[in-house]
Amino acid sequence: MSKSKLMLSMVLCPLMLLWGCKVEYSFTGTNLDYNVTQTFSVANFFNDSGGGPANMGQNFTESMKDYFQRNTQLELVQTNGDLQFEGAITRYSLTPQATVSSTDPNQPDRSGQMRLTIAVEVNYINLGDEEQDSKKTYSFYQDYDPRSTSVLAIETDLIDTIFENIIQDIFTSTVANW
Fold first, then answer.
1. What is the residue range of the signal peptide feature (predicted)?
2. For residue range 13-30, what is the model confidence (pLDDT) as tens digits?
3. What is the CATH number of the domain that holds 86?
4. How many CA atoms lie less than 13 Å away from 11 in the CB half-sphere?
5. How many domains is the chain built from?
6. Which domain holds residue 135?
7. Do residues 118 and 159 make contact, with C-beta atoms less than 8 angstroms apart?
């Protein structure tokens, strides 16, 4: 085989492979076929955890919609999307992580770090590929120092960071299939 034919085949083979692929890849890492999957819907997530701010479920729902709109070419529809997400916030807990011992016998030991943990159960339905359907719980946490600030002062920021990480995990395990 001559050098020119070898070079031509080295260029054409990868191009033909890419051209023959039906799955579209994007810079965000999705592997959606936009000819098949064109819409998504997110039902209201409710706060079934018994804790957290009253608007936490609505904030999660809106954050999830925004994330998928920014990172896919899918159109958001009210109900019955090609991809459907529904679920609930199932855990909101504050737990001590490290104890600081007091040198004063009259002072009790106290927590040096606190952890806010949130878990969200998600039911995912893919109308184009039922094998992708899943029901999974996603969880994430953030630590903070209660000696320097109260949870009320930073709760919104902690929740936003936790939601951001949970939504990225949902995105990765559903439309990126990692």
1. 1-19
2. 554 444 444 333 344 456
3. 3.30.160.150
4. 6
5. 1
6. 41-174
7. yes
